[in-house]
Amino acid sequence: MHDEQKGDYDKLHEQMGIRGFARTVIVDDTECHLPDATYVISGTGTAQGVNDLAREAVNAIGRAAGIVVAQTTYAQVGVSGLVPVK
Predict the structure, then answer these.
(1) Are 23 and 34 in contact (CB under 8 A)?
(2) Which of 10, 35, 61, 65 could hold 1 in an S-S bridge, CB 3.0 to 4.6 Å?
């Protein structure tokens, strides 16, 4: 987020959640936190559709942000250093 103010990320997390985004993933049967300001969403939409959803969330809190969306057909990703949810 560009020029974020105190509390902006809490508002963004709420808006992203409303749109179906999550901030955790399951790794080896363990739920883990994604890095700050990183989200995941599953479904059959397009990368542009997901980008539009994220942009709606940012717009809903009146901020500006850079957004990158990656689309994959297979859930094969390498992860390391994620913190388990307690």
Answers:
(1) yes
(2) 65
**CA–CA distance, 33 with 36 (Å, rounded to integer):** 8
pLDDT digits (tens, 9 = 90+) for 1-12: 788 889 999 999
Alpha-carbon span 15 to 72, nearest angstrom: 23
pTM across the whole model: 0.86
pLDDT tens column, 58-83:
999 999 999 999 888 766 777 889 99
**Does 66 reside within a domain?**
no
Q: Which amino acid, one-letter code, is at 68?
A: V
**Full residue range of the structural domain in which residue 48 is found:** 8-60
Number of domains in the chain: 1
Residues forming beta bridges with residue 31, ordered by sequence position: 26
